Amino acid sequence: MLRSDGDPELRVFDPTTRILHWLTLLLVITIFVLAFSIDFASSKAEAIILIQLHRSFGVTVWTATLGRLVWRQFARFPNWPADMPPIMRLAAQLSEYALYALLLTQPVLGLLWTNAYGDRADIFFLGRLPALIGRDRAFARRLGEAHATVGYLLLGMIALHASAALYHHFWRRDDTLRAMLPQGRRRRDAQLGADESQRLSQR
Ligand code: HEM
Ligand code: HEM
Question: Which CATH architecture has domain 2-201?
Answer without folding.
Answer: Up-down Bundle (1.20)
